[in-house]
Structure formats: structure tokens, C-alpha cells
Design a protein that fits this description.
This protein is mainly alpha-helical and about 200 residues long. It is about 60% helix and about 0% strand. It folds into 2 domains: about 5-105, Fumarate Reductase Iron-sulfur Protein, Chain B, domain 2 (Orthogonal Bundle); about 110-200, no CATH class. The chain has helices spanning about 5-10, 15, 25-30, 35, 40-50, 55-60, 75, 85-100, 105-125, 145-150, 150-160, 175-190, 190-200. The longest helix has 20 residues, at about 105-125. Bound molecules: iron/sulfur cluster (SF4) (2 copies).
Length: about 200
Amino acid sequence: MGNLSNLLKQDPRFHSALTSCMNCGMCTAICPAAEFYDYDPRKICDMVQRGDDETIEQLLKSDTIWYCGQCLSCKTRCPRGNAPAEVILILRKVSQEMGYFRFSEKGRQQVEIMEHIGGNILEIGYCVHPDRMPYEKHPEQGPVWDWYLKNIEKVAPKVGANYHGTGPGALRTIPEETMEEIRKIFEETGGMELRHKVLIDR
Ligand code: SF4
Ligand code: SF4
């Protein structure tokens, strides 16, 4: 076992994520990502289980670990109770910690995700929010998005949203007390530090 293999195992999620893979392929058979990409959770679990550092490094530098959509279907079907989805999360974390994510196109896209999606969560409590998606920067949304943003005050109540309101409802303003809690969770779980590492070369 090498350093990278040990690093994966140090993650507190590891021992519930991968106990003993018997290579049956049930996870791949159920995996929706495997239908669209050159992606195989069975192979990933096998590589991690073998613990060969050279192979693990290649995995950490590859696009492969970013294809998973975290639907968790694999976890429900594994006869050994493994959770390939969580193995992937651990690989992603180590890839970001070690800077290996920069070697793959999908990995490099994490910089944008950390900056924008992560920034939104930390600043307003939403991953995505219409206020953060101006039409000029998101023309791919089509002209209906432009119209929606211009008319959001009128449209939101019609679909039950509570745009910038207090109390419950989609698009409500997240109270500062809750925002502080969210930031604290990021601090305590190492999310803030990881974000800093990914964004360091920005
Ligand atoms: S379903 Fe479970 S045991 Fe089978 S290949 Fe996937 S992780 Fe391994
Ligand atoms: S969580 Fe990921 S690996 Fe598991 S089935 Fe869904 S897409 Fe596939």
C-alpha cells in the first residue's frame, strides 16, 4: 500500500464506502453515468481496492472521477454494501487536495464550480439562484430567461416562490444566522480550506 492509498483510507467515509468489492459489476449495470461516458464504477472500486499508488494517481488525474452524478443507485444495489458513489467523493477530495484535478478537463472545471456554486452557497445559501444568473452571462438559457428575470417579482408568487421574502418558500432570503451556520459547517469540515486550495491559482 502506498501513500495515496493510505490517504484515501484516512477519510472517515472510506470504511463504510468500500469494505470488500467482489467485482460483480452490479454498480456499473445500474449506473446512469456508465450509459453515457466511458465510466465504470466497478473498475474504480477495483483500482482503489488493489491499492496500487501508480494506478490511483492516474485515476486522480483523470476525467473519470468527475463523471459520477451522485445519484447513489450503486449504493442501493451493491451486494457487499459498498457505496461506489462515496469512493468517488473521496477520490475527488484527494484529487483536489493534491492538485491532481488540474490534469483533466473535467477536473479543471471544478475551479469554476468551486468559485461560482461554492461562492453562491457561502454568500447567499443557494447553489444556483436567479440573481446570480444574469441573462448576459447565460445566453444559453434562451430569451425566456431574460423575460423571466425581468418579470420575476410578478412570476415568482404565481409558482409559490417567496422571492427575497422571509419565512418559508423557494428563493426566500436565507437569514444571516443560518448563513453563519453554513459557513461554520464549511470551516469545521475542511470545505473552506479545500475551496481555497482549488482556487489558489485563480
Ligand atoms: S456492486 Fe459492489 S461488489 Fe459489485 S462491483 Fe460494484 S462495488 Fe464491487
Ligand atoms: S452515484 Fe455515481 S457511480 Fe453510483 S450509480 Fe450514480 S452515477 Fe453511478
